[in-house]
Specification:
It is built from 8 helices and 5 strands, in the order H-H-H-H-E-E-E-H-E-E-H-H-H. It is of the alpha/beta class and 264 residues long.
Length: 264
Amino acid sequence: MRTKISKSIENGGRNEDVLLGIGAEYSALLENIEGYTSEDTLGWINECLPDFEKYYTFLREDRNKKFSHQSDFLSSLVPEFLYQLYLKFVVSKFPDLEITTQKDIVIDMSFLPYQELPMVVKPKRVDVAIIKTMPLKIDDTEVDFNITMVGVEVKTNLDKNMISGVEYSVDRLKKTFPLSKFYLISEFADFAFEKQNYASSQIDEIIILRKQKRSEVRRDISLTKDIDIELVRSHIDEVLNYLESVIDAPESLNTRMQLGKLIN
């Protein structure tokens, strides 16, 4: 967020006063976050969310809505919140995992008989990812390569076209890394969810944080619900349980043979 603010000031100072105000509020938010002492996930969320909602309301004031969609600071708020959550309550428990934001993850890769480019990867940019760095060498050349454990794409208003766009990428990701998880998280639903069935897709979960349709708040923003605390807590628990279940390699086939079950 600080980088986005700095770049916006550098690229054109027309709204510098507004940007400085946003920067000051964001710094205050981070200072408050650092002061949260709860080691319990639900307790921390209860401490943290009111300040995020306060900052959210500040950003939606007319005087602060002067930027293009690409520079909209509202779109960075939920990824920032999730980053802080994952960092404190998930990644901190697994020393070999890292968390990244606004980075490309590998969703597909091919090995070809070329001398100079034997491996070709297809990337996808995601808002937040939990990754495991893997040492990889090709012809004595070290390659920057990571296994995506959890990928997260965040939307403000999720429509059916966005879901369709993500489905293909997630399908490729799961073929390359079959044990990975992918979550599509949005504040509002902007599609007729009662007429759609996304359970058959490879997306592990579609989460609507405010449990609202966009149409409910389009004309009256005061009807916006707070992000659901219990929904966020259950998501963090799910991610933790998943990582704890896949961090160790499965038993050998010889051991499984003693049980008579070779797959699970």
